[in-house]
Amino acid sequence: MTVTASARRKARHYAMQALYQWQMAGASLNAIEAEFHADNDMSKTDVDYFRELFHGVAKNLDDVEAAFAPHLDRKIDDLDPVSRALLRMSTYELQNRIDVPYKVVINEAVALAKKFGPTDAFKYINGILDKTAADLRKAEVQADRRG
C-alpha cells in the first residue's frame, strides 16, 4: 500500500486516541491495539505508523516527556489527557521520524487538538511543540526560518 497523507492522518488520530485510553485505563498496549483493530475500519490507515507511534511513545515515555517538559508551565500530570497524549505522540515523531517535516508534525497535532482537545488547547500545543521542534530539529527549524 502506498502511504498517503490521509492514511498517516488516520494513524495519528487513532494513535492519539489509543494513547488517551492507555493513560486513562492503564490497559496493556496489546489489548488496546487489538481493540482498535476490532472497533475501527483500519483499511485506510497506515497501521504500521499507528503501531509505531502508540508503542514508541510507551516504550520511550521518559525520553519523550523530557524533551517537551522544559517548555511546560505546569506539571505533565496537570495537562488535560488529550493535550498530554498529543504532546507525547508529536514529540516522539519529532525525535524519531525525521522523514516527517516538523511543520507537518505540529500541524497534525494542532488539528487533532482543535477536534478533541479543550477550548484553545491547540494554541498551547502549538507553542510547546514549536519550542520542542526548535530543540530537536534545530537545523531544520533554522533553515525554515531563514527561508
Automatic annotation (TrEMBL):
Transcription regulation keyword on record: yes
Keywords of the record: RNA-binding, Transcription, Transcription antitermination, Transcription regulation
Single biological process term from Gene Ontology: DNA-templated transcription termination
HAMAP family in alphabetical order: NusB
GO terms for cellular component: cytosol
Entry protein name: Transcription antitermination protein NusB
Family under the similarity heading: Belongs to the NusB family.
